[in-house]
Amino acid sequence: MTNFLKLCIVALLCGLTAFSATAQNKTDKKGKKQGEWVKKYPNGNTMYEGSFIDDEPVGTFKRYYENGMLKSEQVYEAGDMSSVKLYSQDGKTVIAEGNFRGKAKHGMWKLYKDGKLLTEEVYKDDKKHGMTKTYSDGNVIEEIPYNEGKIDGVHRYFLPNGKLYSETNYKNGIKDGAYKVYEGNSSPVIFGTYKKGKKDGDWTSLDEKGNVSEVLKYKDGVLTNKKEINKERNKRFEERERSKGTILEPNEVLGVEVQSK
Asked: If you write DSSP's letter for every residue of 135-181 in order, what string do you get?
């Protein structure tokens, strides 16, 4: 190969490299990003890659961790909507997916743990709006209704077997209304009322037979029958202590005397 030909090839390669560099990361006369853009970390790995039109991202944008693994994929759609998937540092496991309107979360978002669905959340302009559900092994264990970022409605907990554990009513982010604990039963075993965030009125507990075991009386969050409750609790304790003397020991039941060795 002649020296002249070698020089031509080197010049051509240099030209291609220069063209590749100038084809990316361009701005127009107004300073707006146009076309393909790639940004690098100091270690040389890609930080992000995507395209712009008039400074606005379009199409698919990919962002990466500093170790080079995929961090997120965001697809920009018509208007200001975009969908995104977020990945763990292995670059493969999805840990969250949802939608944005502009820079605000909007619509359904799903969060995952170890590849399993953990939470479903609904957003409106970056505020929770709708039912948030938390899962364990595929079963719903919690439901929280939101309205404009505040809990509003009945907040429910469930046992792993799917049975209802408790219900709490909220209004505009504050406990207000009925409170019930089911513990998996068909009817509540503890029930009372909140008024503007404070316990109010009778709070009733039932025993295992369904009989009333205790009634706590509240006014504006203050227990008003504390003396009566303490007296009743002491009475039950004394009854249990007295009952110990009426229970026959094994040797008394058998009619024999047990001697220690």
From this structure: EETTEEEEEEEEETTEE-EEEEEE-TTS-EEEEEEEETTEEEEEEEE
